[in-house]
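Q: Make up one entry.
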Amino acid sequence: MQERCQSTDCSNPHYEPIRFNSDYLTSIASRVESAVVDGDSILSLSYWKRVRGDSIKAAVIEALQRIGRPATFGEVAEVLCSTDISKRSISKRQVQTCLGNGFYPEFRLAGPGTYGLSEWGFEKYKSSTESVLELLQTNAGPMEAAQIINRLTRDNKYSEGNIRRVLHYDRRLVRTSEGMYDLKERVESNSKATKAADIVLDIGDKREVSIVVPDPDGQFYNAGTASSGIRVGLDASEEGTS
């Protein structure tokens, strides 16, 4: 953000700061854990829910009740602007933050871009984000972007643009060094398992010790025994164990 400062002297009252583009703020917030965009600000999720979110949630619930069916962000915002449901102005972006991030169990995705109340009992629509995560979980390994796009756009349920946005912005996904996409949790788990297995033994005066190391799936097994100073990898048999 420092590189994008639009004023040469922000302390000079003659320079009026130019607001950041909303898409730019959204791209930043998408990469920060528990951060949301509210108007021209990026706020922590806990602060937003405490100071603004809960009151916005109550207003959105009443607006949906008046509409009586699942609605888009714009439809809900229009009802809020044209009625006395809320004493303060609530923007379309604030409605989107309230409905579209899974913060509140009171709301449920009903279709592309439409949300309703969970109490209405309709079947939850599977978003493009959920489909990408589910595909990677089922695949049990990283996939190329083209593979993911081809699999999820076959029946025209999702667009290529939506899938690419999920791959680019979702914090639960990472791009590997090979240019493929995988679940962040799985990559971190495998990395920890590899580091735990790659150790140097220092057993002092003991002639040998029993070695227990994890495999890539996180399951521990007895790799046998080793003498002092031997480096142990996932395949301990190649490192001189007996």
Summary: Strands lie at 35-38, 41-44, 107-111, 114-117, 173-175, 181-183, 199-200, 209-214, 220-226, 231-232. The first helix runs from residue 22 to 29.
